[in-house]
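Form 7-S
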Amino acid sequence: MYILYFIAGTFAGSFFYTLALRYSTGAVKENPYKALFSLSACPHCGKNISPVYLIPIVGYIILRGRCSSCKNRISVSYPLMEVLYGVLALMVAYFHGTDLVSLSIYLICAISITIAVIDFKTMTIPPSLIIIFVLLSIYPIVIRFELMDNLYGLIFLTLFFLIIMFIFPGSFGGGDLKFYSAAGFLLGFEMSIVLLEVSLITGALAGIVWGGINGWNFKIKIPFAPFISAGIIITLLFGHTIILYYTQIFGL
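Output:
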C-alpha cells in the first residue's frame, strides 16, 4: 500500500509542479482554463509530450532527460519534485493514516509546496492559491471542532507579522502575511507557535548563508514562502511531537 501511496504522490507532484510553473510564467493569469487543462509540452520546442513519457520519474528515465522531439535537456527538477511529492504522500500516510483528513493534509502540503515554488521563481504568492489553501483547511478544522483555537491562531500570526512589517518595513510582503494568516487559521494557536519557530529559524539561517554568498550583503531580499511552507509541513507532520518535547524539557 505504501508503494501505491508513493506512486499516487508522484502523479500529484507532476500536476502540482506543472501548475507552479504555469503560474510562474503567467500562463494561468493569461488563460486559466488552458493552463489547467492543456497537455504538457517541451519547454524548448513546445511539442506536446507523449502520455507514456508523462509517467512520473519513469518517463524522464526513458527519455534520459531529453525531449523526444528536439533532444534538448529537460530539467532534473521535474523528477525530483515528483519524488518529493511521493515521499510527502508516504509520510502523511505513515503519520496520519489514509482517511479524508489525511487527504486534506496532503493536499494542503502539496499546495504549500506549489506556493513555495512560485514565490521562489517570481517573489509573488498568488491569492487564488491562498484561497484554495483556506478551502482545503475547512474539513480538518471542522473535524477538529476547536474553532476558537483556530481563530486564535489566525489572530496571533496576523497581528505578529503586522507588527513586524510596521517596525521593519519591507521585511515581509503582503503575500507572506496572507499565507501566515491562512496557516494560523488551519493550525490553531499552539501549532502556530511551532510554525513560527520553524519558518523564522530556517529563513534566518538561509538568509545568512545567502547573504554570505553574495559578499555579506544582507539587504538582498529572499522569497519567504518556501520557509513558511516548510514550517507548515513540519508542523502538520511533527507539531504535536515537538510540543510534547517542549513540555518534557520545560516541565510544563
